[in-house]
Amino acid sequence: MGQVLHESLFPGVGRFGLETPGSSQTNDWLTQPGNWHEAANLFPLLPEEELNELAEDIKANGLLNPIVLFEGKVLDGRNRALACNKLGTAFSTNEWQSNGTSPAAWVISQNLHRRHLTASQKAVVAYEFEPLFAEEAKKRQKQHGGTAPGRTKNTSPGLGGSVGESQKLAAKSVGVSHGYVAELKKIVAKDPSLLPEIKAGKLTIPEAQKKLGFKQSTTAMVSAESNEWYTPKGYIEAARKVLCDIELDPASCAKANRVVKAKRYFTKEDDGLAQEWQKQVWLNPPYGDVGPKFVAKLIRDYESGKVKEAILLVNSHCTDTKWFQPLFNYLMCFTDHRSKFWNAKTKSSTSPTHGSVFVYFGKSPNKFEKHFKKFGAVLQRYRR
User: Fold this and answer.
1) Which residues 6+ apart lie within 8 Å of 324 measured at CB?
2) Window from 2-6, 147-151, 374-378 with minimum mean pLDDT
3) Does residue 336 contact residue 377 with C-beta atoms inside 8 Å?
4) Can you list the domains of the chain with their CATH numbers?
5) How many degrees, rounded to 5, is the angle at CA 116 between CA 317 and CA 378?
6) What is the DSSP-derived secondary structure letter of residue 218?
7) Can you tell me the distance from the alpha carbon of 271 to that of 51, in angstroms, rounded to the nearest whole number?
8) How far apart are CA 130 and CA 119, in angstroms?
9) What is the gyration radius of the CA atoms in the chain, in angstroms?
């Protein structure tokens, strides 16, 4: 339930809440880093430009989600508090309720779906959250006479288990292999200066391993990060039946094109964003911050008529992001399974931790539905 905070709780702050609209003074205390929970601080704040966009959205639509507090600190909503402070707008708060999870696990669940993170960046999140999971385990052990409760197969992330299980709990919470977090630890132990680069998405774990001369573990690799992992043949064949020919794959390489068989493709070195896109396009965009730029270009080039028809493959865990929202204007197929991406060297496959979405741009919706309904539900925005 939302609440109003008073001077008696926070001396010198004044009344706080929806009763005092337009008073920036009432918001100041929640914008101070000293009043932010350590779990919240492990996720980076929005860049200034995105924070300004958030403020404009709040100005136009109001604050849709209240600030969440725990132990007198902001557990979730630092960016919302900063945006409201910019506007001089008061806001309501909620006190965090456990509901069977821990503060650390809950913060992860709230933030992961808002951010387009690579598997390497997720591993960093798990790495940085691991001490919090360990501390929570110690507290539970202390409360139960030295034995942590709930050590069962159904233990929820962040609850139960010993301190030694903290790495597995943290990894599970972000959706990566605990072995992948272990690989990151080896990198940090060898060269701590690489951690900020991996966290920022400038370097992947496989790239860091290669840079340090480490032997790379193929079991830890995921399709989103390695050029060795490609889209399964079945999806490509379905796309070809819809498009007839794949004229262009703007984010590819020679090995991937053995299956895609596009007449033209652009590699990382070609910089597909700087090239001209035309006719029939198949796009499985690069992961990380650059991915949304490929999606935006596809939408622009299709709307302008340069691209005649296209099929896009993206992750299904980003549906609430700003870059994904325009895709709801097109026909979609949400997979009912996790796609198994393939590896040219090992002949093996691996699955991401979430499903996928195929988005169709074109004038043959019935054709798309015919060939993609076997992968999952084909949906379109309801229009009256």
Assistant:
1) 295, 314, 318
2) 2-6
3) yes
4) 2-97 (3.90.1530.30), 115-220 (no CATH), 229-379 (3.40.50)
5) 30
6) G
7) 29
8) 16
9) 23
Distance of alpha carbon 316 from alpha carbon 325, whole angstroms: 12
One-letter amino acid identity for 136? E
- For residues 171 and 306, give the distance between their C-alpha atoms in angstroms, rounded to a whole number: 43
The least confident of 4-8, 217-221, 275-279 is 4-8
Backbone angles phi, psi at 285, to 5 degrees: -65, 155
pLDDT tens readout for residues 139-173: 767 766 655 444 433 344 444 444 457 778 887 77
Q: What does each C-alpha distance from 170 to 103, 155, 159, 205 come to in angstroms?
A: 12, 13, 11, 17
The side-by-side arrangement of strands in the sheet containing 73-76 is 2-3, 93-95, 67-70, 73-76
Tokens matching residue 31: 């914008």
What's the rounded Cα separation, in Å, for the pair 5 and 308? 56
Q: Kindly state the tokens that stand for 205.
A: 């774990």
Token digits of residue 320: 């609430």
